[in-house]
Amino acid sequence: MKLARPETAPPADADRRKAIAPVICYPPETLPVPPMDLYRTARATATMVATVTAPAREAAAIEVPAGSFLRIQSVDGPQVGDLNLFNLHDRTERFFSGKTRALHGTHVSTGDRLWSNLPFMRPMATVTHDSLDWYGFDAFGGSVHDVIGTRCDPYTGRLLSGDDYHHCCHSNLTRALSDAAQIPLAEAEMQVHDVLNVFMCTGFTRDTGQYFMKASPVRPGDAIEFFAEIDLLAVLSACPGGDCSAEHSSDTAACHPLLMEVYTPAKGALSGWQSPPVNAYDRSHGRG
């Protein structure tokens, strides 16, 4: 956090340095464009093939075959969720929130993609529907579906409060992944990663640049949908912060379940579509 009163005097050309215009780090114009019309047509033919509920303050997992749609929906009340995505067949390939943020911005919505970690670096899923896209950015700089927060966890909670709390999203995701993959908790914990904060309304304060949260605009019936570009294992925690209007990692917030549904398009609806290959970089790192 920047000091309220800097210790260093500004140089004579401080204003000129500050006035330099920013440059977008990763211009998205050359990224592969998702075939949104094809996805919408395919979604219109799709039928639900699987469903699971993440109970309040718990997590659940579901398999999403490539070419299917994953729908996450608010059902009983305002609730945010923390989402992890894995390659179903190789969990070393997982969602890379940092690069997704660098390519698409701090928050994602329709048409944005969720990218996998290095060295795979390919689209894992594409956002095809977002009932909260109307929210945009509010007067505080807040928006919905962020890729900046890491997930509430018991280690930070211990540092801040001195207590152990086991139903934070990190622990929820760890238990759910352990059950879904049939691996020990310790192994699952090492695979849990930074999340997409589904329905969460967040931003950075203008004066100090601190990460903030505020009451989510989500209401029962709101949903976000993703097209699975590869075979996925999706793990979702219904955050103990509820709508994150006040706090998280406690039992005091009003919390609600979140619903996950998988929809498979009719045969032939995705004619011509192919799952994206892993990144084509030769991995020689200059020593080939």
Textual characterization of the structure:
This protein has a domain at 75-227 and 241-266. α5 packs across α6. With 288 residues, it is α+β, with helices and mostly antiparallel strands. The strands form two sheets. Strands 2, 4, 5, 8, 9, 10 and 12 form a seven-stranded antiparallel β-sheet that branches. Strands 1-13-3-11-7-6 form a six-stranded antiparallel β-sheet. The protein is built from six helices and 13 strands. It is globular.
Strand residues, percent? 25-35%
Give the integer mean of the pLDDT values. Answer: 96
Counting DSSP H or I runs of 4 or more residues, the number of helices is 6
Question: What global shape is seen?
Answer: globular
Question: Between the first and last Cα atoms, what is the distance in angstroms?
Answer: 42 Å
Q: Using the CA coordinates, give the radius of gyration.
A: 20 Å
List low-pLDDT spans. Answer: none
Strand pairing plus helix content: what structural class?
alpha+beta
Give the proportion of residues in helices: 10-25%
Query: What summary fits the major beta sheet?
Result: 7 strands, antiparallel
The counted number of beta strands is 13
Instruction: Report the order of strands and helices.
Output: HHEEEEEHEEEHHHEEEEE
